[in-house]
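[Q] Does anyone have a clean structure-token version of this?
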Amino acid sequence: MASLFDYLAWRGDLRFSAAPFNPVDNILFSILSYCLWEGIVGGIGGDDNETRSTVTIGEAATVLLGEIAEKRKRLNMTFIFKENLRHLLEVIRDAPRFADTRLRAYVNHFDKKIEKQFSAITFIPEAGDPYIAFRGTDDSIIGWKEDFNMVFSEAIPAQREAVDYLEKAARLFRGTFNTGGHSKGGNLAVYAATFCSKRVRKRIRNIYNNDGPGITGSIAARPEYAEIMPRIITFIPQTSIVGLLFEHKDDYIVVESTEKGILQHNPFSWNVMRNDFRRLDSVTAESRSINETLTHWLAGMDQKRRRHFIDALFAVFKETGVSSIDDLTADRLKSAANIIKAVQRYDKETKEMLFSTFASLFDIVSNRFRSILKKSVKNARLKLPLP
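[A] Here you go.
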């Protein structure tokens, strides 16, 4: 099976002037948006000199890789990419197709108080349309909390900032452009395209949602969404979980992945065929079952109950000292014991949902550890009376 790195080996020498932008280019730009570009790429607001500051991917990647070698602090954005992101930078900086693409308007905002994690960057190739990329969720608990807040909030802080960013970034160049992102970044692109000004919305060629959540029913009913829907291109792996959340009025495209379960969310696992992804006819039965379960769960809870559960989930994280997904791996048995202790104060329904959710999180980190946690949970239930 061919990977993103195979694509770069085959087509990395073909400039955009020779081979037009395609879906694989879209995911590569989306992945690059996860890098920490502070001090390398200029920002978007306030200072005009800062706004005009540009750098090529080749130049930026060289600087970033040098800093990584010295400090190893720049690529800790998301646990699912592991070493692939660094390897991508090493390959892409020398690929003529991407090396001369200019990076502009980098923004990275993290606000623990209002539970916001937002980042975006604009790619301007030497030929063809610019690509405004919204970053997905990093491994911070605040980033995940903001994602979960979508189940009871009409708009989360990152979505509101995405609209503002799209308006500002679109002023940096003329003509049409593409926008998109991976995971939450895909959702932000769809949201921003829906709520931006009509003037900007008309300039958007395509909106790429790469295994990101859909939108709520109230947004799907808006005329602005109906206007952009034909331009939304949604890719999800065959056992998608994140990408099937909420509504997808647009027809999604199923992509073959080499991974299993939630790890298919990693686009480095998506199979490539020439200048596109290897497509399948439908998602798996497992994906449909998970989606039906989540839909049923959400339908059975009002907004107040949803908020209560999400707040309880992240209160347990805070109490047990978990600030990132990596913290769950530091001392797994200790983490499980602390979580079990913290969960006991909640009512029966919340407790059951919390135990199930934490089992799933540990499943992402380690399939082996899930069985340990489940066994611990079972023992805890037998020993402790329900309230």
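[Q] Thanks! Anything notable?
[A] The first strand starts at residue 55 and ends at 56.
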